[in-house]
């Protein structure tokens, strides 16, 4: 109850001198019926009714922020559950793209958990924490640093380099400098077109390789292997509609291995994703059936967030990056200034017969991929 009304009731609306108390219309300027001084301190009359309007606006903004946080978190939760229950088997596309973007796609959930904490939305916070936990479980292993393995006594040391040339890259010859500097024993190139092959040959970097298996193709699916060691039993079967080059490398009289120049199709549509899975599944089956150690090097168009790649690794090979704990080393997209590399889709996978003694990612050379260089010691 307002002060004026209370006094009026107690005094019968009579002032101390017996005069009537002023009514609402007779109140001095700056006072309302509730007896609250609304003057601005300068003699003018203020209005506090605007603060209620401002409070209403702030409330609406808070509700919109909470609604947006719920919407984003719920959508990410659905995607996460879909990944956990292997929904990508039924929805091959666009789940292949969604899973590839896992490191970045789930970042908004951390903003949403901040909203939940700041505005005390308990259920929102719980859902955010669950989604964030899944994201960290999937992403953190890629970031954990490690160290190279030691070369076993009596092992054969060799270096492998792989690079996607980008079939229309007129600057592919720039890779020649990195080839000379790193001096790989086995060089695996994909997207070897007549153009890119000529550019790398013109750089003079391939002259040191006595042995080679070269299958240039117009378009994106040519491949080549250059080696200081003898090559034999080369084959280039069609897998999933694209060529798959492999050859046996003889390191010495006691040791040989099979090298695969890997380039799967990019899973950017339903049809392409089915072909991509067929190619990775075929590699998995070949790894399981292999009688010799294997090295699979090239552009897999897959990250550790893609189950077909994880199944390939589980078939009996190791990702050289993970063995040494190389951390955040994306290889694609290397040719866009506004969009730096964010995905690691170029890999070197090896049988346990190899110790991984070094790993690094090279520099850009006009392709959309960066080269990968791995040091191995064959037991």
Structural summary, described in words:
The structure is a single chain. By secondary structure, the protein is of the alpha+beta class. It has 2 domains: 49-143, no CATH class; 156-378, Endonuclease/exonuclease/phosphatase (Deoxyribonuclease I, Chain A, 4-Layer Sandwich), CATH 3.60.10. Helix content is 37%, strand content 20%. It contains 11 helices and 14 strands. The strands form 3 sheets. The chain has a 6-stranded mixed beta sheet. It has a 6-stranded mixed beta sheet with strand order 5-8-9-10-12-11. Strand 8 (245-250) and strand 9 form a beta hairpin. Helix 2 (49-84) crosses helix 5 and helix 9 runs parallel beside helix 10. The termini are far apart.
Oligomer: single chain
Major sheet size, sense and barrel closure:
6 strands, mixed
Mean pLDDT: 88
Overall geometric form: elongated
* Total DSSP helices: 11
Count of strand segments:
14
* Major sheet strand order: 3-4-2-1-14-13
Structural class: alpha+beta
> How much β-strand is present in the residues?
15-25%
Distance between the termini: 91 Å
Entry keywords:
379 residues; alpha+beta; Deoxyribonuclease I, Chain A; six-stranded mixed sheet; 14 strands; elongated
Please describe the topology of this protein.
Elements: H1 3-11, H2 49-84, H3 92-100, H4 102-105, H5 108-118, H6 122-143, E1 156-164, H7 175-182, E2 186-190, H8 194-202, E3 211-215, E4 223-227, E5 231-235, E6 238-239, E7 242-243, E8 245-250, E9 256-263, H9 270-289, E10 294-299, H10 307-314, E11 318-319, H11 320-324, E12 346-350, E13 354-361, E14 372-378
Helix pairs in contact: 2-5, 2-6, 5-6, 9-10
């Amino acid at each position: 109850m307002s002060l004026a009304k209370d006094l009026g009731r107690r005094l019968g609306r009579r002032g101390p001198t017996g005069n009537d108390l002023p009514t609402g219309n007779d109140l001095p300027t700056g006072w309302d019926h509730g007896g609250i001084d609304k003057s601005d301190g300068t003699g003018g009359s203020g209005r506090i009714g605007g603060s209620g309007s401002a409070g209403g606006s702030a409330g609406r903004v808070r509700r919109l922020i909470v609604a947006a946080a719920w919407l984003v978190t719920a959508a990410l939760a659905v995607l996460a559950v879909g990944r956990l229950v292997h929904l990508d088997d039924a929805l091959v596309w666009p789940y292949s793209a969604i899973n590839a973007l896992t490191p970045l796609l789930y970042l908004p959930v951390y903003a949403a958990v901040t909203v939940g904490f700041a505005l005390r939305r308990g259920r929102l916070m719980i859902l955010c924490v669950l989604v964030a936990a899944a994201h960290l479980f999937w992403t953190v292993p890629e970031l954990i640093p490690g160290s190279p393995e030691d070369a076993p006594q009596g092992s054969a040391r060799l270096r492998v380099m792989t690079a996607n040339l980008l079939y229309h890259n007129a600057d592919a010859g720039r890779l020649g400098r990195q080839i000379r500097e790193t001096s790989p024993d086995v060089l695996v190139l994909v997207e070897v077109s007549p153009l890119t092959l000529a550019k790398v040959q013109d750089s003079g970097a391939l002259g040191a390789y006595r042995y080679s298996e070269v299958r240039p193709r117009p378009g994106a699916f040519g491949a080549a292997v250059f080696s200081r060691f003898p090559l034999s039993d080369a084959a280039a079967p069609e897998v999933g509609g694209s060529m798959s080059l492999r050859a046996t490398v003889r390191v010495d009289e006691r040791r040989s291995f099979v090298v695969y120049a890997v380039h799967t199709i990019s899973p950017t549509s339903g049809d392409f994703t089915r072909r991509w899975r067929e190619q990775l599944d075929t590699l998995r089956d070949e790894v399981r059936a292999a009688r010799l150690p294997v090295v699979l090097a090239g552009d897999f168009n897959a990250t550790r967030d893609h189950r077909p790649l994880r199944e390939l690794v589980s078939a009996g090979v190791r990702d050289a990056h993970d063995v040494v704990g190389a951390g955040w080393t994306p290889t694609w997209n290397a040719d866009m200034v506004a969009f730096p590399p964010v995905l690691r889709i170029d890999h070197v996978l090896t049988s346990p017969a190899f110790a991984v003694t070094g790993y690094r990612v090279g520099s850009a050379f006009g392709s959309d991929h960066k080269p990968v260089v791995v040091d191995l010691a064959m037991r």
